[in-house]
Amino acid sequence: MTSITAANAIIMITIPGLFPVPQRIQGFSADNVYDAADQEIVETAMGVDGILSGGFVFTPIEQNFSLQADSASNVIFEQWAAAMLNSRDVITANGETTLLSVNRKYVSTKGFLVNKSPLATAARTLQPRRFMIRWERVAANPI
Fold first, then answer.
1. What is the pTM of this model?
2. Could you report the per-residue pLDDT of 88-98, keeping only the tens digit for each?
């Protein structure tokens, strides 16, 4: 394809015990569907003699979703947070991000809802809400 649009991104999330059937996340903010933090995969240390050593390390992947204030998908995150509050325990999710414009699918496993906007900021208009999931793994695959 010759396009790099994010407009045709398909994001699905499954939360066992709460949303066992995959739910499509929709209603993204005008300027951002999601962002993902850089992942550090090597830890290095330089000895006093100037020799650099390094080793592979596992690190989680943080994905921040940005949803319009009126997105129907806000309810998915609100119910997920409420279920954890009520149970006083964590509930993990699995997800799948399909980027049709670049023919890639990303399968995300064991995600924790770590941060959430409790409500939309009210300015001249209601502002987008952000929700951050920390994934154990994100695997890239061609479509």
1. 0.93
2. 999 999 999 99
